[in-house]
Design brief:
Largest sheet: 4 strands, mixed
CATH architecture of the largest domain: 3-Layer(aba) Sandwich
CATH class of the largest domain: Alpha Beta
Structural class: alpha+beta
Number of helices: 4
Radius of gyration: 17 Å
Order of helices and strands: HHEHEHEE
CATH superfamily of the largest domain: Vaccinia Virus protein VP39
Oligomer: single chain
Number of domains: 2
Length: 143
C-alpha cells in the first residue's frame, strides 16, 4: 500500500525551514516522534554526515539509513561510512555506551566483524513484517 504525500519544493536547510515544513506537512512524519522538533535536546544539522561525525565527540546515537546496507552503497562515496576509518571516527564521535546503527535491507553479517574490529560490541536487530524478515540493523555499542 502506498500513499501520496505533498512534494517538498526544496530541501529545508535551516532549523526554521524544517520546523515550517513539519508544521505545514505534519502528515510526513506524525507517527515517528510527536514534538521532537520542539525538544530542546534536538539539533537539526544540514551537513555531510561524515563531517558531522568527524567533529562530534559525545553523541548518543548515529543511525544511518543512507544506503540499502553497508556493503552495497547507492553512492560509492558513502562507502567511507562503513570502512575501517569511518567506523573508527563514528566510535570516537559517540559517548561511552552510545550506539552506531546501520540499516540494511539484506543480510551482511560479515559487517559484525568490522564493527568488532573498530572496538564496538556488535549485534544485529532483525525487522519483521507479517512474520517475514524484511531488514535488519547492524548495531555497534561503544564500550
Amino acid at each position: 500500500m502506498s500513499r501520496s504525500i505533498p512534494s517538498v519544493p526544496a530541501w529545508p536547510r535551516t532549523e526554521g525551514e524544517i520546523h515550517r515544513l513539519h508544521d505545514e506537512s505534519p502528515e510526513l512524519v506524525p507517527h515517528l516522534n510527536p514534538g521532537v522538533l520542539g525538544d530542546p535536546r534536538t539539533r537539526l544539522i544540514h551537513d555531510d554526515v561524515v563531517r558531522v561525525i568527524a567533529r562530534e565527540k559525545a553523541l548518543d546515537l548515529i543511525l544511518l539509513d543512507v544506503d540499502n546496507g553497508p556493503e552495497w552503497a547507492s553512492f560509492r562515496s558513502n562507502s567511507r561510512l562503513y570502512g575501517e576509518r569511518g567506523l573508527r571516527e563514528a566510535r570516537q564521535a559517540l559517548r561511552p555506551g552510545g550506539h552506531y546503527a546501520v540499516w540494511s535491507g539484506y543480510p551482511v553479517d560479515g559487517f559484525l566483524k568490522h564493527l568488532r574490529s573498530a572496538g564496538f560490541a556488535a549485534s544485529v536487530i532483525p525487522f519483521y513484517e507479517k512474520r517475514r524478515l524484511q531488514a535488519r540493523a547492524y548495531v555497534g555499542r561503544k564500550r
